[in-house]
Amino acid sequence: MKIDDLISISQKFGSPIYVYDAALIKSQYKKLSDAFSAVENLHIKYAVKALSNINIIKILNSLGSGLDTVSLQEVLIGLEAGVKPNEIIYTPNGVSLDEIEQVVELGVQINIDNLDVLEQFGAQYPKVPVCIRINPHIMAGGNSKISVGHIDSKFGISIHQLPHLLRIVKNTKMNINGVHMHTGSDILDIDVFLQAAEILFDTAKSFSNLEFLDFGSGFKVPYGPNDNETNIKELGEKLSKRFNNFCLEYGKKLNLTFEPGKFLVSQAGYFLTTVNSVKQTTSTVFAQVNSGFNHFIRPMLYGSKHRIENLSNPSGRERFYTVVGYICETDTFASNAKISEISEGDILCFHNAGAYCFNMASNYNSRLRPAEVLWHNNTAKLIRKEETFKDLIKNQIIADLD
Which residue stretches of the chain have pLDDT < 50? Predict the structure, then answer.
């Protein structure tokens, strides 16, 4: 997208606002598909938790993507978007058996990561196909909060518990049709991914009726012009060869599944804010914008560094700014960041705002969540209205306190 397009959107729809470029989403999907073109049965399942707007799901589904979901509500959103139940995998963590049963009724692929739940489920639904999520005990990912395959993680069934797992399967006569893993997000080292893949292959040998192997995701995307990213092409070449060889060893062709979220939508997202004021202190110049961690929490929660661009003065003299929000707590988006000179009323753009940004927004400080716009075929389409005060209080009930 061009700067003029983003400024035009902010003028038409206001700010703060999220904008998503459909062409970039499609480009990322093709990049991943092309990297694994040597695999006959490649299944990409978009991780809905990254960005759950129905329009984004529809675009990806039109390209051939299924869905990776983690809650009943995400499953329902996917079905509402027109995704077929057999194209959806449901991988919950710590939910009740009742929720899993509700998803079973919808005809969605179940993925279980808890031995107790597996035993309960197998005893009641032995004929329902189930995928097993293993924990490979590998520390991977760009942040401890998004590293989910290590020994102390709450996710997955430990590979050391495989004998117990097999006893449950044998006793319940369950139908295990898939094995799954997800080590973390922002993985740069391909060898770490391949190491985890070998653990998945070894585990898969214990099951005779598999239909697919699910390698999760976790590919790192660049957050700036010189930032590192996962070499998807190299990973595709190495893992495709190993996967195809494993299928020969296993005796049948399996589906290879990935569950990318950030990889598909992160770079396609832009978060636009307006500068309320510029505040000079004894040592710092603050650019104060009309948003906060209620809308964009990643820098505060994960320490992520999003490039901030002054769309109103892109070629201006660069100065150092600490960009902060309007929340009544410390909500610093960036400290001493080099940005073209900022004035009150300027439009600032936060890059890589497509994944885990709007979906983590809240009404903290009783602020309203912003609108979302899709840039599709050089046209700005409103895909979510900005909340109103009525939205904020609509579920509150005035109790009789007399």
Answer: 140-150
CATH C-level class of 23-263: alpha beta
CATH 2.40.37.10 fits 269-353+370-390, yes or no: yes
pLDDT at 23: 98
Closest C-alpha among 254, 216, 45 to residue 135: 216
Q: Is 328 a catalytic residue?
A: yes
Q: 246-276 burial by CB neighbour count: b if 16+ within 10 A, else e?
A: bbeebeeebbbbbbbbbbbbbbbbbbbbbbe
**How far apart, in whole angstroms, are the C-alpha atoms of residue 49 and residue 355?**
8
Question: Is 293 within 8 Å of 300 (Cβ atoms)?
Answer: yes
- Could you give the residue range(s) of every CATH 3.20.20.10 domain in the chain? 23-263
Q: What is the pLDDT of residue 151?
A: 58
Phi, psi for residue 230 in degrees, rounded to 5:
-65, 135
Residue 189 in 3-state DSSP? Answer: coil
SS (H, E, C) 126-147: CCCEEEEEEECCCCCCCCHHHE
**131, 328, 349, 357: which one is catalytic?**
328
What pLDDT was estimated at residue 264?
Answer: 98
Q: Rounded to whole angstroms, how far apart are CA atoms 355 and 262?
A: 5
pLDDT score at 224: 86
Query: Which residue type is seen at 361?
Result: A
Q: Could you tell me the pTM of the whole model?
A: 0.93
Helical ranges in 251-294 per DSSP H: 262-265
CB atoms within 10 A of CB 34: 11
Q: Using CA atoms, how far apart are residues 180 and 218, in angstroms rounded to an integer?
A: 13
| Helix (H), strand (E) at residue 18 | strand 17-21
- Write the DSSP symbol of residue 87: G
Q: List pLDDT tens digits, range 304-349.
A: 999 999 999 999 999 999 999 999 998 999 999 999 999 999 999 9
